[in-house]
Amino acid sequence: MHVLLDHLVATIIGGTVILLLAVLAFRGQETAIDSTQYATAKTRVIDWARMVEQDLNNVGSGLTGAEITAGDAFQSTDFEATDVFSFRIAPAAFASSSDASVIGVARDAHYAAIGPTGGTRLVCYEREMMGTTVQVLDEDDLTPGDQYETVELFRIVRKEAPSSATNCEGRPVLAQSSPTLTQFQILLRAAPGVPAASTADVREVEVRMRMVSPLGGGRTEAVGGMRQHIDQTRWGRVFRPANLGRTL
């Protein structure tokens, strides 16, 4: 009888150890998945942010002081509720072919048609909805507990047209972001925290971006009543283009 009890106890202990090891291995795999998802989303964000930085730092390049004063550097107001944001820069400020987010074939065909030198160019960021929704953590809701919202994924495409144009309709796509954006805002400011009343008043440009991993959401489940997973990767920056405010 004692032998049977000893075997039973040993079996229970062995099963418990195996179960604990399996749980630890599973948790380790989930952590690895989360890390991979975060790294992928971060890489996509950085790729697109590099082009946005190059564009917005050069807003108004190639324009005269009178054109800057008149507000001609921007064709649009805030890029928040609208689907198109456009501005003017000199051709030298265009993204180089070494940028991973540039679509080389379309770029080469575009430049062959309108030429890469002379004058300024109208650059357009256009929002394209992907028709896919995901659940993300509502970062604006500070109520304790799981607070999720459903958002539709989209991407931003970059086009160019001659400076005299008023839009980029019919122009080829020269670059595009990842199709997993959940937020992309461009806010025009007259001063820190002060919205610009017109494009002539703009002295700084604030960009806010959020993106989910193209590999999907994390799977680490609730800890202490709140879901702990890598949800959205965020990037933001305030630019103060040197050309804005120039009078010569």
Give a short summary of the structure:
By secondary structure, the chain is α+β, with helices and mostly antiparallel strands.
Describe the protein's architecture and organization:
Helices cover 29% and strands 30% of the residues. The chain is α+β, with helices and mostly antiparallel strands and 248 residues long. It has one domain. It has a 4-stranded antiparallel beta sheet, with no helix packed on it. A 4-stranded antiparallel beta sheet has the order 6-5-7-10, with helices on one face. A two-stranded antiparallel sheet has the order 8-9. Strand 5 (181-191) and strand 6 (194-195) form a beta hairpin. Mean pLDDT is 75; it is low at 93-118 and 220-230.
Question: Which secondary structure elements does this structure contain, and how are they paired or packed?
Answer:
Layout: H1 2-57, H2 65-69, E1 84-89, H3 104-114, E2 121-137, E3 148-162, E4 175-176, E5 181-191, E6 194-195, E7 204-212, E8 222-223, E9 226-227, E10 232-239
